[in-house]
Automatic annotation (TrEMBL):
<protein>
    <submittedName>
        <fullName>Uncharacterized protein</fullName>
    </submittedName>
</protein>
<feature type="region of interest" description="Disordered">
    <location>
        <begin position="49"/>
        <end position="79"/>
    </location>
</feature>
<feature type="compositionally biased region" description="Polar residues">
    <location>
        <begin position="511"/>
        <end position="520"/>
    </location>
</feature>
<feature type="signal peptide">
    <location>
        <begin position="1"/>
        <end position="29"/>
    </location>
</feature>
<feature type="compositionally biased region" description="Pro residues">
    <location>
        <begin position="59"/>
        <end position="75"/>
    </location>
</feature>
<keyword id="KW-0732">Signal</keyword>
<feature type="region of interest" description="Disordered">
    <location>
        <begin position="511"/>
        <end position="537"/>
    </location>
</feature>
<feature type="region of interest" description="Disordered">
    <location>
        <begin position="601"/>
        <end position="633"/>
    </location>
</feature>
<feature type="compositionally biased region" description="Basic and acidic residues">
    <location>
        <begin position="602"/>
        <end position="612"/>
    </location>
</feature>
<feature type="compositionally biased region" description="Gly residues">
    <location>
        <begin position="621"/>
        <end position="633"/>
    </location>
</feature>
Amino acid sequence: MPPRRFQFLLAVLFLLTTTLFLFGPPTSADLPSYDQVADAVKHPKMPSLENLPSLEDLPSPPRPFGPPVHKPPVQPDSNSTSSYGLIQWFRNYKWHIPFSSAVTFDENTAVLPPLNERPPIYTYYEARDKQSKEVTEAENRLVLAWRRAWWAQGFKPHVLSRDEAKQHPLYQMVQRLKLEKVDPEVEVEIMRWLAWGHMQGGILANWLALPMAEYDNPMLGLLRRKQYPQLSRIDGLENGIFFGEAGAVDAAIKKAIENPLFTNVTQNHDKIVDLKKGAGAMANLLGKDIKAESKSNGIAYYSAATLANVYKSVADKFTNTTQLEGLDLLANLINSHLHLTFQNIFSEGIAVIKPLPEHTTALMYEVIDIARNLTQCPTSPVPKSCPPNRSKCTPCNPAKPMKLELHIALKDTTKQYQIGTVPHPYTLGLLHYTRDTLDANFLHSTGRDQWLAALMADILKEHSSSDQVVRFKEVVASPQSAPTSLWLTAERISQADLDWIFGFNLPQIASPNKDPSSPSEDSELVIFPRPDEPAPIEGVQEQDAEFIKHEEERLQKARDAIKSTDKHWKEVINMVEQWNQADAEAWRFARAFSARRRQERKKWEEEEKKFTGSEQKSGVHTGGGGGRWIDKF
Ligand SMILES: *[C@@H]1O[C@H](CO)[C@@H](O)[C@H](O)[C@H]1NC(C)=O
Ligand SMILES: *[C@@H]1O[C@H](CO)[C@@H](O)[C@H](O)[C@H]1NC(C)=O
Ligand SMILES: *[C@@H]1O[C@H](CO)[C@@H](O)[C@H](O)[C@H]1NC(C)=O
Ligand SMILES: *[C@@H]1O[C@H](CO)[C@@H](O)[C@H](O)[C@H]1NC(C)=O
Ligand SMILES: CC(=O)N[C@H]1CO[C@H](CO)[C@@H](O)[C@@H]1O
């Protein structure tokens, strides 16, 4: 054994050799110069271009003396596959940052805001005895429309049935009353409450009660807050909506069942039948124990009474021979009112945002298609009608449809719905510079982040691209502005889920001429002409067909390059992303936001698929803009 001080020396020597062996000697190249550090502090994550051509050497060298960094743990449901590879995101309150990589330490993971919690809303559905399969399916489609409309407003709609009611401790007791022999409607109303009680309260809605209002309508806002201190209903909506907490709901059920009327149901037969009037059996049994909220106009309820009073031509179809047709007309009527509400909310119409308009026509097909269908008058059996809760609406007039225009930049408005396409910087590069590929030399000669600069030319002119990208993220994802715009990525060919984003189906058929017409001879529906393409932007030279054909080809080339797993293409794409960091970040953010929105919905559809009103049970197989069932007649 060497003496003690040699042991120490040996240990130091050993450490030194291992370090050198593992990481090599420090060279001056590894040590950043003062300028580099100063630059990095001023422009985080903006590598200088000189380093770019040799990008392949870049992959992170071991950094024994760098700050230790823990990668954040992978969150559940934070990725989704696409033909462009894995799309990843990370939910964090710190999403108002220019560059996600500051939080995720990974270029490809976008930081998104945490998901808003969706308060559950319940409805109760029970098919009547001996009901035909077709009628059940038609009712399922109405329930699906109910689910979609509430989903679009930020709720999590669940459909309950007698199976949930059976789980309630008081179910047996209600069964013994044999109320179905006295009045089936009264019995179903109590079952509804039992099912609701089993779910621990919350919001209970009829499946013909749908939200028809702007996103920040006070009533919808109150329901979203998930705090219901008092058991309540809404004045004028009969039994369309109740809300309350678990304890209050259970106490109410108990009190209602203990009503003296039920001690002898044969003796009190007529009084029990009378209970279903007005706000329904439970509300009548409870009287003042349920608070009636007044002045709430956010919800439309298509009760039998409303149908008979306001939409008589539809109500008349609800006979036992034409019930199926009645249900389909009602589905179209409701869809048309949801769509009309959207058109009324955005009184200044729709703007399709087309930055750098000389070269981006081929990017706009999909958004213009959506915008035209959104501005078309909705297919309806009662075309001039208003939703039941908005009797003073402005009905859609095909001679003066909702305004549709092209803008070259984003506007700061909530009166106009804005739709845009976010291109990958490589896609934009090919189109904007009319080139078939991009290389480092050419890239040197171009400006950075052109797309964002053009997009923000009105509201954040002369700001840094970091400011602009933060603003863009807010427009896409903040709860206030997300409901007023839609952002698609240029590289995706088809857009799914539009009907869940808007809460209604876009019209899929249009009148062949300038006048309203009917889709078939015996149909009672009225369809309207499709609005024209928006007028070209003033002062922007229109391109001829040949030029646009080249644009389409370049778009295809860009899609292929971005999709490619080839090393060369990956380097080129990476280089373009490094040069246009803000544009690339905007693209990744918009892409991750819509991938997450879709994933959230698909996951939930998967959970609900066995229940009434799922797409599967309604004979609807896609979640696309074209749930083609609605324009059926
Ligand atoms: C993607 O998400 C799934 C499910 O949450 C997870 O199991 C998987 O590890 C994730 N993949 C990556 C690369 O993060
Ligand atoms: C209920 O009332 C009917 C008629 O008034 C009477 O015949 C019957 O005996 C009563 N039943 C009970 C259980 O009190
Ligand atoms: C409609 O239903 C009622 C009651 O169920 C029945 O009495 C009537 O005969 C039915 N009419 C037709 C045309 O089936
Ligand atoms: C818009 O309507 C047309 C028919 O008028 C249809 O072909 C197209 O698929 C619709 N697009 C969307 C996104 O709904
Ligand atoms: C303006 C308007 O028509 N409001 C109606 C909304 O719906 C409730 C319930 O049906 C009616 O009571 C309001 O009059």
